[in-house]
Amino acid sequence: MRLNIMTEKLVLAYSGGLDTSVAIPWLKEKGYDVIAVVLDVGQHGKDMQMIQEKALTVGAIQSIVIDAKLEFADQYVAPVIKANMLYEGEYPMVSALSRPLIIKKLVDIAHENEATTIAHGSTGHGNDQVRFEAAIHALDPDMKIEAPIRDFQWSREEEIEYAHAHDVPVPIDLDSPYSIDENLWGRANEAGILENPWHQAPEDAYALTKAIEHTPNEAEFIDITFAKGIPVALDGVEMPLSDLIIKVNEIAGEHGIGRIDHIENRLVGIKSREIYEAPAAAVLMTAHKDLEDLTLESDVAHFKPIVEQQLANLTYEAKWVSPLFDSLMAFIDATQSTVNGIVKMKLFKGNAIAVARQSATNSLYDEDLATYTSSSSFDQAAAVGFIKLWTLGNTVYEQVNHVHSQKKKMKAEI
Predict the structure, then answer these.
(1) Annotated pathway, please (predicted)?
(2) Whose CB among 275, 277, 383, 389 lies 3.0–4.6 Å from 189's, allowing a Cys bridge?
(3) Is 14 annotated to bind ligand?
(4) Is residue 327 among the annotated active site residues?
């Protein structure tokens, strides 16, 4: 009697590149029916229809493209802006942000199609393997995981040889020495000559920003309007956050803004030299912080950076899905209710500078109190008593431990 054994379904995080393309026939040989899924999160210059068709050509039983730009901006980039998240003070979470969204979608599709397994194309020495698999474990701990590039330990030459043997089209840009990941929040670039930190990054490592030497010789000014900490309008024109980010990327990139050359501490314990381009992030996060300076009460403003740093670490370290992340974001959200207003940004020669700001409803700046002119409403006489009370503790300490002891010493000498 012949047994009817059903082939297991597998959902693959597909990019259209060599790694995930050769993964499809390899996974088929292992016995899976492969459903390829690619998320459009604003990758610059990518033909999504071509990528979708390529997956079917190389053996996927189904190929799905999801336009996730709106969700990516509203649910993943927005928290980064509100929390001023910069890993190690520099990295605005370009690649780290898209991974939890990709896995969320893949898990949903796996459930819809009764798939048992999710696969990704990460290597064994990067952060993405951790981000992908941590999110899978959090969302569905029973889901199996395949990582053919990491587990099979293919060399580049072996991948190409396998591709030719299985009629997998080899990308024409394979000679590029760089490994690039991109979404609407920015572009990450590594490998090749960039692996030597003493080598200056060549211009061909950049795609979103102009070299300073080729930027305009006149500054450009733009107004960013915020509502509850989120950018909602550019120069008075309201638009979805995803569209606003794309437009600011274009404008700021022309002025060479957003280049980051960073030696980064990876999750797996190694240091990596990363080249990032994040023009919109540089402009919007600078504007956001400037508006917070105008609208946040001082104790909140001083404590918030502690939370911001922890959130940046959690995001980078694949803990976007975690109780601590949710709890800290609840605090951040509470602080943003007053962050409403407009910031004028000056863009010039690689610099994004906040030069003016206003908040009609939540500004804590009182010009009558701040002015040094005769019209000041500040009660300077009250400062005398304030200073006495403010320093009372230190004054008593000094009197007990220094002034009194010095007097005793002087008497003893007499």
Answers:
(1) Amino-acid biosynthesis; L-arginine biosynthesis; L-arginine from L-ornithine and carbamoyl phosphate: step 2/3
(2) 275
(3) yes
(4) no
